[in-house]
Design the sequence.
């Protein structure tokens, strides 16, 4: 590729004009992912990578538009008389256009990184998610250019962008897509939630996806070359591209995905701990959020501290590996905003009263009515006092309430009133009476053997 | 880059050239040999001038007959590439990239014509100077008038100092002063290379061309000097100049 041609195409292609929009798009898709109060580098890398969902279709639209430029500008005759192989000219056009969305991606990612570094507490950013995102943008640019070359219409650009956007979003979840392809979806790779930092992200998980994306990119550009009858080199490029696609498919296996992370993948770490009622321990990456999290755990556990059977430690635990050890409270979140404080208080309160589910990573199983009473009381005494619902319909999103499908709505409202009455009665007791009752009945409460009438 | 290699041979050698678009036969057995100098191609609309030039410019392959340009066979990939390095072409409808500056557009074509990297800057500056656009070199093409765009088209055609320059209606849109300068440039290029100019402007032919060909219905119906064409019109009354009367007389004869 001629560097001077590339310079001209970079300066005068549609990419430079679209750059402010691309930057806006990249900023929009990453700005609310700036870490608050701390930095979890892996999550940050995954978030930066996932901005490709918008930038790759944009890149495809730009290159598709540029691929049709010569026909729109009636340049075909003039260009046909020049000796430089057309594919070299077209590669310069492609590269000069692709550069801008790639730059926008890197610029937004760099900004987030720099902001994050100011609060960095642990480790560094893994590069494979960022690389996968970048390769997806480049792949989108190649696919768009090929589409625009084969169908040089004004409609190709928007159509290819829409198609790519929905393909990227749809591929990881569609049942009709073979599982290997689903696992090769960049979005599948980049869209994980939870404590990714606990079990890391091995480079080989991104490897097959990177190989696959490079394969698509080379194949797409080889198809462009075929149009000019460059059968030898284009054939070689297509063979390499298809080979990489096949290699990506072959390298993929379910145990390379985050969903199937094995216990062996856990990255050893020395936790940092706080808390007074019980030790509250988090991964060093979450150290910035520890004080607030520990305060909440303390306030919830304090009324129960020292009672036999009450968890003696709270820690983060990746639910992929099954239930946490006995006697351990699982911190499903750490607190980085008020909303999470509310949800975490529910989660811990339910664990403390023995409601299943939160211990096993699945949706919490509904508590028994007696467990609901104590859990709600624990939350209220901890200062997390959500407005108590008057009717079951208002309370439908509360994880703290029992769910008995066989009851009618009226019966559920009655049950709710009974629970709230019990909460108020328990709250009205003096501290010593509350403690005495809890010491006497905690094991039965956790085992689900108490009924509302058993409460004071 | 100068055309020393073709000084002793015909730059354009065409025999029995045919060209058809669908069922329409556009060129019907054109025979043409052109050496150094400026060759004017005249003819009414639809005579086949543009198709002949596009064929000579290697835009389209001949349907029949043989074509050799600058001693090379344009049907051969390697020779065609060598040939294109020494070719300049200005199409009738010049496309352009509006966002490019004059200088960038000419440089773009210098690069596509594989002008050696160390010569590009100088070649671009020289081409722009020859068409008189030095003061607009940094202007974007979308800001130029039609005449200026035509001059940009000429600049890209000559940036590689071609041995064979093919110009389709090059003076359309140029003002009289620019046309005078342009004709002088053609004569200068014609001293060391071959220029084929298709035009409707007979006065351009009279002043700039050493030789002229007149096409009608896909054939060359006249070949000679402008004086010889003028001589054909002594008995013909239609036309404002001697050359126009010669042109009209030849055409009338061809149609008869």
Sequence:
């Amino acid at each position: 590729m001629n560097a001077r041609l590339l310079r001209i195409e970079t300066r005068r292609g549609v990419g430079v004009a679209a750059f402010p929009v691309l930057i806006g798009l990249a900023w929009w898709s990453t700005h609310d992912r700036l870490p608050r109060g701390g930095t979890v580098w892996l999550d940050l890398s995954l978030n930066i990578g996932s901005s490709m969902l918008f930038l790759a279709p944009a890149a495809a639209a730009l290159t598709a538009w540029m691929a049709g430029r010569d026909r729109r500008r009636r340049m075909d005759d003039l260009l046909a008389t020049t000796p430089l192989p057309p594919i070299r000219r077209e590669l310069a056009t492609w590269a000069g256009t692709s550069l801008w969305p790639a730059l926008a991606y890197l610029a937004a990612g760099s900004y987030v990184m720099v902001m994050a570094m100011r609060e960095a507490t642990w480790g560094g950013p893994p590069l494979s998610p960022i690389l996968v995102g970048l390769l997806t943008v480049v792949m989108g640019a190649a696919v768009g250019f090929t589409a625009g070359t084969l169908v040089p219409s004004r409609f190709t650009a928007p159509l290819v962008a829409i198609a790519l956007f929905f393909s990227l979003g749809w591929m990881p979840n569609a049942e009709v897509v073979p599982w290997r392809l689903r696992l090769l979806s960049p979005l599948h790779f980049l869209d994980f939630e939870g404590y990714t930092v606990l079990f890391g992200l091995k480079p080989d998980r991104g490897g097959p996806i990177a190989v696959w994306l490079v394969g698509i990119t080379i194949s797409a550009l080889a198809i462009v070359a075929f149009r000019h009858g460059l059968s030898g080199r284009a054939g070689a490029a297509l063979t390499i591209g298809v080979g990489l696609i096949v290699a990506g498919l072959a390298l993929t296996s379910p145990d390379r995905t985050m969903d199937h992370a094995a216990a062996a993948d856990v990255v050893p770490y020395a936790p940092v701990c706080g808390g007074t009622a019980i030790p509250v321990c988090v991964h060093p990456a979450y150290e910035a959020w520890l004080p607030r999290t520990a305060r909440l755990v303390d306030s919830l556990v304090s009324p129960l501290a020292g009672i036999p059977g009450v968890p003696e430690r709270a820690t983060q635990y990746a639910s992929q590996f099954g239930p946490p050890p006995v006697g351990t409270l699982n911190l499903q979140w750490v607190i980085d905003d008020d909303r999470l404080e509310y949800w975490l208080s529910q989660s811990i309160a339910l664990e403390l009263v023995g409601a299943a589910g939160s211990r096993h990573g699945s949706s919490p199983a509904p508590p028994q009515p007696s467990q609901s009473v104590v859990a709600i009381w624990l939350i209220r005494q901890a200062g997390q006092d959500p407005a108590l619902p008057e009717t079951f319909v208002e309370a439908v999103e509360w994880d703290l309430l029992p769910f008995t499908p066989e009851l009618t709505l009226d019966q559920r409202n009655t049950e709710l009133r009974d629970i709230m009455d019990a909460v108020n009665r328990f709250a009205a007791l003096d501290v010593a009476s509350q403690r005495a009752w809890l010491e006497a009945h905690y094991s039965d409460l956790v085992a689900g053997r108490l009924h509302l009438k058993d409460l004071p | 880059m100068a055309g020393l290699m073709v000084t002793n041979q015909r730059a354009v050698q065409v025999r029995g050239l045919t060209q058809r678009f669908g069922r329409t036969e556009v060129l019907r057995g054109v025979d043409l040999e052109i050496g150094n100098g400026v060759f004017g191609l005249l003819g009414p609309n639809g005579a086949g001038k543009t198709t002949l030039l596009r064929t000579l410019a290697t835009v389209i392959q001949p349907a029949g007959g043989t074509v050799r340009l600058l001693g090379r066979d344009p049907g051969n990939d390697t020779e065609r590439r060598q040939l294109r390095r020494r070719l300049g072409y200005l199409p009738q409808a010049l496309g352009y990239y509006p966002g490019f500056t004059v200088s960038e557009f000419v440089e773009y074509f210098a690069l596509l014509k594989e002008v050696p990297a160390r010569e590009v800057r100088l070649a671009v500056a020289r081409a722009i100077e020859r068409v008189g656009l030095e003061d607009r070199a940094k202007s974007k093409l979308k800001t130029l008038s039609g005449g200026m765009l035509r001059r940009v088209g000429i600049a890209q055609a000559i940036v590689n100092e071609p041995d064979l320059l093919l110009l389709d209606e090059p003076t359309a849109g140029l003002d009289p002063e620019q046309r005078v300068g342009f004709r002088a440039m053609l004569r200068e290029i014609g001293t060391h290379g071959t220029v084929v100019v298709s035009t409707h402007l007979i006065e351009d032919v009279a002043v700039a061309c050493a030789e002229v060909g007149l096409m009608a219905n896909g054939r060359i119906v006249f070949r000679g000097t402008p004086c010889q064409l003028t001589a054909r019109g002594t008995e013909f009354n239609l036309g404002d100049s001697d050359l126009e009367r010669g042109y009209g007389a030849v055409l009338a004869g061809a149609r008869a």
Remarks:
- The first helix of chain A runs from residue 3 to 12.
